[in-house]
Design a protein that fits this description.
The chain is an alpha+beta fold. The protein has a single domain, classed as Deoxyribonuclease I, Chain A (4-Layer Sandwich). 31% of the residues lie in helices and 25% in strands. It is built from 9 helices and 11 strands. Strands 3-4-2-1-11-10 form a 6-stranded mixed β-sheet, with helices on one face.
Length: 301
């Protein structure tokens, strides 16, 4: 009798262990590694790549959304051979990509999201990550820079000054970013409709904390445009925190990891981190390392 109970118990434990709903921690990060490519702005020396590689090891993430990285060849200068890389094909050195650690045991389906290219801007990368019978959708983005807090509605953009070259660039940036809202919303709506757990991650070039503080309307703020009800009700830890990158040089985050409710249920409480460079800020260092510090979260997958 005792032997039968033990055998049954052992079998149940074994079945639990191989259950397809078994979860493991997955560290998901985002890092804009400024001008990591063949562009003339990249003046890094071998020692700079080694310094970046040291921070990559410290980050030690399983999945990393990359911005401003030209291709796999350049990514390996920082991340070595431990990752598989999935890059957009946009003909520009500032590509969006995703690095997935080979040892993480994740099945990846990757495709470009070209709809974000509304006017000579970067494509996104749409990934389906699956492991242990669970699935997480991920959209890696690098949105148009230059319109960090201005209202995005057509009326306010039309009223923006444009007498100087700087003002013209800012106005054009806001007009372009406003056009990226629709393809972003379409992707979010599609995942919500399909009842998927999803994350939108990367460099949004938008201070969500300011969108919220300024109480923008849905057509004025990027955060408000994306944050709807139900499965489209979004959350990001960066909306209520200050960035410490380079001594808090820019206190408002523009890099974000945005969760829908299903993905939020996979989030490990208080796991958000920013890997802050230990060096004191100089303009040269912000170019040889990056003007962005990596951010990360942990989820159960």
């Amino acid at each position: 009798m005792h032997k039968s109970i033990l055998t049954t118990t052992s079998l149940l434990i074994g079945l639990m262990y191989i259950s397809p709903s078994y979860s493991e921690e997955l560290k998901v990060a985002s890092w804009n590694i400024a001008w990591l490519g063949s562009h003339e702005y990249n003046k890094r020396k071998p020692t700079d790549y080694q310094q970046l590689a040291n921070y990559a090891k410290q980050l030690n993430a399983d999945v990393i959304a990359l911005q401003e990285v030209e291709n796999e060849q350049w990514a390996r200068k920082v991340f070595g051979n431990e990752y598989d890389f999935y890059f957009s094909t946009k003909d520009w050195v500032q590509r969006v990509g995703v690095a997935v650690k080979k040892s993480a045991g994740i099945k990846v389906i990757a495709k470009e999201y070209k709809a974000l290219d509304v006017s000579r801007v970067r494509h996104g990368m749409d990934l389906t990550l699956s492991r242990n019978g669970k699935e997480l959708k991920l959209l890696a983005v690098h949105l148009k820079s230059g319109c960090f807090t201005d209202p995005l509605d057509e009326n306010n953009i039309s009223l923006m000054p444009s007498s100087s070259e700087k003002e013209q660039r800012r106005k054009e940036a806001c007009a372009t970013l406003s056009k990226q809202i629709e393809p972003l919303e379409n992707w979010v709506d599609k995942q919500a409709k399909d009842n998927k757990a999803f994350i939108v991650i990367g460099d949004f070039n938008r201070r969500f904390s300011q969108d919220i503080a300024n109480k923008r309307t849905e057509d004025q703020g990027l955060w408000q445009a994306l944050d709807d009800e139900g499965n489209e009700s979004l959350w990001t830890p960066t909306a209520t925190m200050n960035s410490a990158c380079w001594g808090g040089y820019y206190k408002d985050y523009i890099d974000h990891i945005v969760f829908n409710p299903m993905a939020k249920n996979m989030y490990l409480q208080s796991s958000f981190e920013q890997l802050v460079f230990k060096e004191k800020y100089t303009k040269a260092l912000s170019r040889s390392l990056s003007d962005h510090c990596p951010i990360s979260v942990k989820v159960n997958l």
